[in-house]
Structures are given as structure tokens and as C-alpha cells.
Amino acid sequence: MATIEWRSPASEMAVRQFDIAAERLNLDKNVAGRLRRPDRALIVSVPTRMDDGSVHVFTGYRVQHNDVLGPFKGGIRYHPDVNLGEVGALAMWMTWKCSLVGLPLGGGKGGIACDPKKLSRNELQGMTRRYTAEILNFIGPEVDIPAPDMGTNEQVMAWVMDTYSQHKGYAVPGVVTGKPVDIGGSLGRREATGRGVVYMIMEAAKHLELDLAKCSAVVQGFGNVGLVTARELAALGVKVVGASDTSGAVWNAKGLPMAEFVLYKDKNKRVQGFPGAESVPGAELLELKCDILIPAAGEMQITGENAAGLKCKILAEGANGPTTPEADQILKEKGIFIIPDILANAGGVIVSYFEWVQDLQNFFWTEDEIRNRLREILNRAFHEVIGVSRREKVDMRVAALMIGVKRVARAMLWRGLYA
Ligand code: NDP
Q1: 375 within a domain of the structure (yes/no)
Q2: Whose CA is nearest to atom 20 of ligand 1?
Q3: Rounded to the nearest whole angstrom, what is the distance from the C-alpha of residue 148 to the centroid of ligand 1?
Q4: Atom 47, ligand 1: which residue's CA is nearest?
Q5: Is the pLDDT of residue 169 over 80?
Q6: What is the model's pLDDT at position 417?
Q7: For burial by CB atoms within 10 Å, which of 99, 212, 268, 272 has the most?
Q8: Are residues 339 and 212 in the same domain?
Q9: Could you tell me if residue 267 is inside a domain?
Q10: Is residue 370 part of a domain?
Q11: pLDDT tens-digit readout, 277-321
């Protein structure tokens, strides 16, 4: 992202991916120059009263990459490594994702550099409310609509919604998505990202003529995305043989007994120590033999260093940015079929879009309607990506980016430059 403020491994990677797509599209140089960096970024100090009476000042961010297609949309991440460059990269990926699946939304992202596991409920609430107050003038149902990401959940979204609403003087459910259903959330939002990953794996299996009931899978990360993906894959008869979280990784060649495994994680907050599996070093998890590998944790997990060791047939990117461009090259040579992040995990923002629409209309849909519409949008996007990939002779990631970038660029040219 050109200038020094944005410099970080994640933002450099996002820009490299964009440049590859822009070159294939022969994109107008002026448009490309604009899209390589975000529209706007906000850095805020978030003073928070800690339980011991002291005040700790956290650093928070909200980056708005592009809103040419509609209001900015993107999650809020709580993680110690959150920084401006990472949030900028995640915001850029949101722009391409919304565009790829045809949503009238732009790309944004936010976060606070903190370890949410070390904060009490009180501290987490205080920090969330103050962060919301600091970014209040930059968000809103018509402006920028946050959602959950790593380290945040529906409770955090409820506090964001309440803080915003208290300032306005009336309830504004449409300011965030991923809220509890009781306060205007959507049925199926919690499961949406993992469910979408599974729909895309089903399409990929059909495309590659693989019988899912004979396939095995490994999942890195066992939070919102990883857990739902693993559970839904197991329900389809896929043997989920390995899983990990920050405590480490576990393996069972016969398949992890999913119901017990999910209960164990829920109760103990860790996968390590699960009695129905052997423990394996976390770094080895990605190289375990399986048909489907699902990274569902952080960025840049599959790199030039370990890509050659991957043994899967399908790589379904639940996480954002899990694979570096160096790794992409190696995986291409190995013939691994990649379902790129902006397609594989787009189920989250699609159902967030449904939630926003329902909030604006005060009219709520059934879970069946949500699932069917989600699947229809994702399947359409999958086949569009396959089509471009074949026609242009590019891999799935470049094809997905080409579609996403092209729609945004076309909209920019229609709207023109305001000067
Ligand atoms: P969560 O915070 O719910 O879960 C993250 C999981 O990853 C946790 O299980 C965590 O472990 C684990 N984890 C973190 N670091 C590592 C590591 N180094 N090795 C193994 N496991 C690790 O986040 P989400 O599931 O919401 O997000 C996961 C990814 O999916 C992110 O890249 C996010 O941007 C992306 N995503 C999320 C969407 C959503 O709707 N939530 C939508 C689209 C993309 P532990 O449980 O021990 O903390």
C-alpha cells in the first residue's frame, strides 16, 4: 500500500495479489493506483478501566478501503497482532469479496490490539464501548457496518449496537451484523461462514469428481469458522482427522468423534488433551495427509517454507489471507485445487448482508430462506470463478480477484472522479 504507514507483511501481500489481477485485467493505471490503498483510516486510543482500578490505553483501528459499490462492511478483530497494515489488508480483501459475490457493499475492517482472553467481561465491555464511541462518526447503517471477526462474537456486537444506539437515542440494529437474534440479528449468521465454506467444498468436490463420504479433512483453528466447518463436514460423512487451536493440534486417523470433540472444546476452551485423539505439533498439522485442508485461523500460514509439504487435494480458505503468493505458486505446481478466501469464506458477509437488509426492513426471514439464498449466491460465484479461470487460463485466486476488482473498477469509472 505504497506509503510507509501501511507497511506490513499482510498489506504487502494484499497489494501483490491485487497487482497480479490488475495486470491480467489491464486495469486503467489511475484506477489501479487508487485501489492499491484504502479510502480512509482511523487510529483511536481506547482508554479502558481495568478491574484493578488502573486505566489501560488500547489502540484501535477502523480502515475503509472502498465504498464505490455501497457502504463499507467488515469485521472487528481483537488480537494482540492487530495493526494498521493488517487491518488495511483485511479491508481490501473485503472490497473484492463483496464485489465478487455481487453485494451492494464496500470493504472495511477494524480491530483493537489486545488479547481478549486476558480481559474480564467488564474490561471487554468497557473497551468495546469506548472503541465504538471513538469510531461513532465513521460507522452507521448507511456508512460502515461492522461485524464479528477473530476474537469478537455476538456479545461484542451487541455492545457495539447498544453504544451506538444510546448515542442516537433510539435502537439502531442495522449498525452492526452478527448480533444476537433477540436484538435484530439474523438466523443462520453464526453458522454462515463455516456453512459457506462447506457449500464451496461440495461444489469443488463435484467439480473434481470426489466422493465426500470417502474424504478426510484437517482444520486449522477451531473458533467460529473452523468449528462450524468441521461439524458440517462431519455431518456430510467427511472424516475430520485433525484440528488445532492455540493450545496445539490433535489427530485421529479414524476421524475425530465430532459431537464429543465440540463439547470438549466448549468445556475446556482447548483442543489439546482431548482423550479421543493423539496430540501432534501444531506446525505439522497443515502437512498431515488429508483430502481437504481448511485453514481457519490467521494470515500467512501456508508459505514458501511449508507449501511443498501439503498433501491435500482441496485447500478451502476459511481464514482471510492464509496463503502467500510464493505458496500459491508451489500449490499450483502440485495441482492442489484452491478455493480462495474471498470465495470460500464469503458466506459470513453474505448473511451479514441479509441481516442488514432484514434490519432495514424490520422484516425477518426463516432459516431455510437464509440457507437457500446463501447457497444460491455462493454457487453462482463459484461457477463464475471456474468460468473465468478456464477462459483466462488463470488459477482460482486470480480468477476470483479479477471478477471482484473488475466490478469495482467499472463502478469507479461510471461514477467518475470527484475533484
Ligand atoms: P475465532 O476467534 O472465532 O477463532 C479463531 C480460531 O483460530 C480459534 O480457535 C483460535 O484458537 C485459533 N487460532 C488462532 N491462532 C492460531 C494458530 N496459530 N494455530 C492454530 N489455531 C489458531 O475467529 P473466526 O473463526 O471468526 O475467524 C477465523 C478466520 O476466519 C479469520 O481469518 C477471520 O478473518 C476469518 N473469517 C471470519 C468470519 C466470521 O464470520 N467470523 C468471516 C470471514 C472470514 P483458540 O480457540 O485457542 O483461541
Answers
A1: no
A2: 245
A3: 11
A4: 246
A5: yes
A6: 87
A7: 99
A8: yes
A9: yes
A10: no
A11: 999 998 899 999 999 999 999 999 999 999 999 999 999 999 999
pLDDT of 353 > 90? The answer is yes
- The CA-atom distances, in angstroms, between 166 and each of 133, 170, 172, 245, 398 are 10, 7, 9, 36, 44
Range of the domain at 270: 192-344
Choice from 97, 109, 155, 193 to test ligand 1 binding pocket (greatest atom count within 8 A of CB) = 193
- pLDDT (0 to 100) of residue 2: 60
DSSP string, 393-412: T--HHHHHHHHHHHHHHHHH
Question: Are 208 and 64 in the same domain?
Answer: no
The pLDDT mean for the chain works out to: 97
pLDDT at 283: 87
Give the E-state strand segments of 178-328 in sequence order: 216-220, 239-245, 248-251, 278-280, 292-295, 314-316
Residues with CB under 6 A from ligand 1: 148-151, 193, 220-226, 244-247, 282, 296-298, 318-320, 345, 348
Nearest CA owner, ligand 1 atom 40:
348
Cα(343)–Cα(54) distance, integer angstroms: 44
Shared domain check, 198 and 169: no
109 flagged as catalytic: yes
Q: Which of 73, 109, 265, 313 is catalytic?
A: 109
The domain that holds 205 is classified in CATH as 3.40.50.720
Mean pLDDT of the 394-416 span: 97
